[in-house]
Amino acid sequence: MTSVLTIPGEVDVVSGEDFATRLHAALTTDVELLVIDMLRVDFLGSAGLAALVEVQDEADRRGVEVRVVCGRVARHTIELTGLGERFTLADTLAAAIEPGRP
């Protein structure tokens, strides 16, 4: 099963805990692919980055593939912090959902 989680707006210290909770909740027992749609994120702070790393670690333990759909802001922040190699990034939701991609 594929699960798509759409995240709009800012992911900062205020919203970071809710973001982390939503990410972990999306890792249900029957999910094989988790797509995190961050195309509409206009700020990604350290709390959001930490939550992404945590959910990627949990997904790795469970054998779940995670793909992050990035707009300009999210991609810039992820790459600026050196985490670009840590995640599978996609430019569009269609590319992230397509089998064997991105």
TrEMBL record:
InterPro entries: STAS_dom, STAS_dom_sf. Residues 1-69 form the STAS domain. It holds the Pfam family STAS. GO terms for molecular function: anti-sigma factor antagonist activity. It comes from the Bacteria. CDD domains: STAS_anti-anti-sigma_factors. This is STAS domain-containing protein. It comes from Kibdelosporangium phytohabitans.
